[in-house]
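Q: I'm writing up a methods section and want to include an example of the input and output format. Could you take the sequence below and give the corresponding predicted structure tokens, formatted cleanly so I can copy it straight into the document?
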Amino acid sequence: MAIIELKDVSKLYGFGDATTVALDEVSLTVEPGEFVAVMGPSGSGKSTLMNLIGLLDRPTHGKYNLNGKAVGRLRTNQRSKVRRDKIGFIFQSFNLIPRLSAIENVALPLAYRGTSVSRRLKQASVLLERVGLQDREYYQPHQLSGGQTQQVAIARALIANPDIIIADEPTGNLDSAASRLVMEILSEVHSSGHTIIMVTHNPELTRYANRVVYMQDGSIVYDEETDVGKVPARARRLIYSPTAKKSEEDDLAGVSALMSAVPNKETTKKKPAKRKRATKRKKS
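A: Here is the clean output for your methods example:
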């Protein structure tokens, strides 16, 4: 059973002549354990799609099933509970609370569940060790580097053991070394069974995904599966265009050690590339 199923989902803002179509009859199915990268130019609908999947917004039209249950029309308190228990968020701007230490930031989601202080701090400590920050537990966000801050944010997203991780440009504010470290952590999270949906403008990061969705003008215009460790054909053209300043050899030299160590899985079946163009609804 699909973990995420969107059927003819649209999102409209405004009224009358001022109506803006942010999503136009989008249909998307995500299976458990997939790592989906979502690409597209600014204004293509990527963030709106993530907000709908993450239950931060409601569709104007269409159906959204999460784990087989309709969630598009849930009441506010019901949406909050599903979001708390099923979805973890990683943001480009980190969104940590400045006055809390790293371990307190990670433990915060468990406070909303009523977990005792000692228990939630213990779980937070385990997750900080998992992301390599066991020696930074009581540092505040301003005492951490950008990469370390994002590592804390990843640990916070994992604390409730969600089924889905939504990462919105998780490396957008990081340098190349910190970006690689963050992506390796996300790859490890994916390998442990979590479903990851990541918005990115960086074609190179599609190496970590096993599926890439391309958006334009509020629609999904292309959807392809790819091998982990490889840049799919469409994303590759964005990297190695005639105006690019680096060669493919330069890029391959910077691929993370984790990616080079990923084993070939004989059980992984590569599906043929699919092309899907949403049918525009005529607007009167």
